[in-house]
Structure formats: C-alpha cells, structure tokens
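Students often ask why we bother predicting the structure of a whole assembly rather than each chain alone. The short answer is interfaces. A chain on its own may look different once its partners are present, and contacts between molecules only exist in the joint model. In this exercise we take two input lines together and write out one structure for the complete complex. Read the inputs first and try to guess which parts will touch.
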Amino acid sequence: MTTTTITTVPTTKSVRKRPIGFYIASTWLVLIVFCAIFGSLLPLPIWNEGQYDYLGVGPFSAPGHLLGTTNDGYDMLSGLVNGARISLFVSVISVTVGGLIGGLIGITSAYYRGKFDGAVQLIFNVMLSIPNLVLSLALISSFAADTDTQEATVARRMTVLIFSLTIVIIPIVGRIARGSALQWSSKEFVLASKSMGTPNLVIIRKHILPNVAPAMLAIAFLAVGSVIIVEGSLALLGVGIPGGASWGSMLATGRNYLEFSPHEVYMPALAIAFTVISTNYFGDYVRNHLDKRESKI
Amino acid sequence: MSTVIKVEGLSVSFATPRGELKAVRDVSIELQEGESLGVVGESGSGKTVLSRSIMGLLPSTATRTGKITFQGEVISELPKDKVRDLWGTGMAMVFQDPMTALNPVRRIGDQLTESLTVRLGLSKKDAKVRAIELLERVRIPDPKSMMRKFPYQLSGGMRQRIMIAIAVSCKPEMLFADEPTTALDVTVQAQVLELITELRKEFNMAMILVTHDLGVVAGHTDKIAVMYAGDVVEYAPTRELFANMKMPYTEALLKSIPRLETPTGTRLPVIEGRLPDPTKNEPGCPFANRCAYVTDKCRAEKPPLTDGGNGHFYRCWFPIGGAK
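Now the answer. The structure tokens for the assembled complex follow.
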C-alpha cells in the first residue's frame, strides 16, 4: 500500500499523458463554446441577411465568405457560428436542468429505497419507453404549432423544445444516478457516517453526491450529443426552431437545395457530427477516469 | 457505577427466501460505566449482528425483539429518529474494515469534522482545532497535514486510528468495536487495541469488543461472552473464564489458537464440522455435532443457560470440570 501511495501521489498533480483524441475533442468543444458565447463579436457578415452578390457559392470560392453562402445568399460561416449558440443553448440548458432534476430524484430514491423508489422506477421506465422524438414532436405540435393565421414564435418554440428535451433527459440521467447511488449507499462509510448520527440529507450531500457526480457528468456529456441530434431531427421534421437558426434548421432548409449547393447540408451536418463525437468522447473519457479512481479504492 | 446498557432477551431474525434466519437468540447482557465486554465466536455466530442490533443499525429486513435499556432509557421501543439522536453522542461504532468505512473522495479533515459540526454544533474553526487534537490523541504523526489527505494515501492502521478518532469525537458513553483489528496487520493490531483500551479508560466508556480471537479479548475486556450459532454459550468475567472454562466450545476455540511452545510439525487443532443451519430449528445443543464430549442428551435437548457462580454462566449439560 505504501509503495502505491508514493507513486500515485505525484502523478495526480503532474501532467498525465492524454490520448490525442482528448486534445482534438477538447479543442473542438472549446471552439464551439467560444463561438456560442462570443460569436456575435466576430467580424463576420450578419447570419440572416442575404448577400445577393453571391448565391449558393461553395466554400473557399467567394471573397468574404470563407465557407460559401447558402442558396439564399446567407453566409455559411456566420450561420454555423450562430447555430452553435442556438444548438448549444438548447442542449446545455435541457441537459443541465434535466440532469439536476433527474439526478436529485435518482439519488434520493436510491438512498431511501422503499415505495418511493418503486414509484420513481416505474415512472422512469414509462418515460423511457416513450420514444423521445415522438414525445418532443407531440409536445411541440400541441403547444407551439404553427396556426393558419400566424407562425409560432422562436421564443415559444425554443421554450417548448427545451422543456420536452428536459423531460427526455430526466429519466436517462435519473436512472444512471439511481444505479450509482444504490451502489454507493450500501458502502460501509455511509453506515459509519449514519452511526455517528449524521442526518440523511447531510449523508446524501456529502457522501453520496460526490461519488455519484462523475457518473452523472459522463452521462450528461453523452446526453448533450444526443440532444443535438434530436434537435436536428426535429428540425428536419419541420418542428425545429424557425428561421434556420440552429444547425438542425440549417440542415432542414439546405435540404431543399441539395443539388445546387450541397455544402449547405454537409457543413451543418459536419458541425453536428464533430460536436456529437467530441461530447461522446468526453463522456467516455470521464467514465474511464472514474473507473481508474474506483479501482484505487 | 451506573449501568450504561442493559440488554434483556434480545433476539434478531432475518426474513430470507429459505425461511426465518435466527441470527441472535435470547441474549441478555449488562454493562456498567467504563466496563468492557468481549464478544467472541466464529464467523456466522451472530456477534456482529448482536452489536449492530443493540445500536439499532440493522437493515429493515431484520426483526428485533427484547428490551434494550441505555442510560436508564428503554431504547428498543423508541422511534428510529429518536435512537438516531443517540448515535455518535451516546453510542458509536468502530467498523471492521477501515478500507471501506472512509469515503474515498473526501479529505480526512472533512470526515473527521463532520460529526463535530453536525452533531455537536461546533463552528468550522473549532471543529478543526478539535479534530487536530483528536488526531494527536490517536497518535497520528503530523496531524495538520493529515487533515488534507485522502484515505487512499494512508495505511490500514492509520485509517483505523482515524475511524477510532471519528467514533470517539462526540465522547460517547458506549463504544462498539466490531472486529477493529481483523483487517489490520498483526504488527499494528496490538497498538490499535491498546489505543482503544486507553481511550476507553480516558473517556470512561463502556465497550463491546467483537472479535473472533480469544487472545484479543483476554487483555482488553472485563467480561467475555462466547457466542455460538446465535446463542451466548458462555458468559463470565475474563479472569474467571480463562481460569475455569466450562464450555467445550470455548475450550476448542482456545485450542485452535497457534502457540509458540507446541513442537514443530504438530497440526493445529481445528473445530471440525460447521455451524448448524440458522434457518432450521433443530432440537438439542447446536454444538452437539462438533463436540468432543457429546452424549445422547445433548442431541435431544438444548441446554439452558446455567449459573455456575462467580458471575459465570454456561449453556452445557456436561460442563468441563463438572457442574457446581
């Protein structure tokens, strides 16, 4: 034991060799997050203002339009930068809110067990059995549908979209949190803390949560990826955020001009793919890290 | 001296798919202030369940009957949250495996000050000062830097000292030590036991020391209860027990401890056979099948707990040295 202690202590502080994929994924994610936050400050053409000199030009072939323009004359690059903001905003908000609610429910039900746990499990299973696309589609079409007289506003669509995705995330994170919390609740240190008279809420906050958090974080990264995909699918089905704002909506609009300007489809598609791959990679990385830490105990 | 804990007719059973498992059967013990009791027995004899059931730490699958009085208050009938108020400040437990009884992701200081702030209501600053004192008290070198360490950076002996420091942090009147040295190296076992005894005397705590090693309890307890298959089969003051052993089971346990003076090549005597199935209620003495002195009476009828004088109780028809 003492020898492992000596060798492991310095390595946790010093730079550990990380796989190349880690650097690629983190660079991409940092770039996307940067675009999402500071995108409007970049010296780019306004994303939804047509430039009629160039219509549907491919990438690297028009001055001032690095990635070309759409068939309507919108700048691709600024469209993608703006799309990053919308796509990330939708996915990060829904995953954070859904993850917090789901995690809270999962952890408490695993800790207290009994009837409450049984009911929670039943609800989670029912929620998981509904295909998430169908659920989102149903919610959006009933609460934020276009009517004959007026189109649904962007804000309303976005609120309902985020709400429906949050509902999808709750049981996913909740089940992972419950499983992990179940395992940690049966550990002896929980009993030891209980035997000192520590209240349950303190035990949950100080003993269970720090141990469950890595598993929740891993699944949250994976969830961000899938939420971006769901958002894109909804846009393709015609119930996305109107006005071609998000990556999914760009895809949906570009689909109509596939034979004239294919880059209008593959640009946002690539952006989605890279982001999803990166978040998945990050999720796996966090989870592997967690395993390493667990094996040390 | 006042009675700290009095247990009368305590039985514990678990509902299992194979039927009711009786882990502890009709056990009665009493401890005065500062007094210590050693509970000895092989694996599965119910000694851990006994200590946990007295404290009320059993899972909900367990059913407990009997009367437990702590400091003059009957706690066996109290609601769970009232009993919980006694944990830590009234009674505390040192667990068997210090590797799993500390949270791997929290610093020693945080775990040590937890009960001080939550249970005693100390401020963070005071709790820290108190925690460092406690670490000094359990002879941890450089307690200040120890506060910042994580459990994986410590050896088993160190961790068990931390566990002991946590257990005594709220000055309980009653300490349960559930095989506190089993998971430790032989070299640190003696030190840890010495430390527990020292703290017990300093804080005037009553203690129940659970172990499977008769040698461990010999020097550190006032009384000994030998358990077999959920029964207390022999209960006596420590000196009396070793001087005047009545139960064939206790004798067999003592014989199976390796000794230096036995000639090389001698086989270590073991107790042949196994514990009886705890879900079955067979007649006769539960030790009958493994006993060297077994008779027909032993197989037919279960012996009652007999008073042999000098506070010595035993559960045998034919005690060693004859009945009184």
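Check your guess against this: Chain A has one domain: 34-39+62-296.
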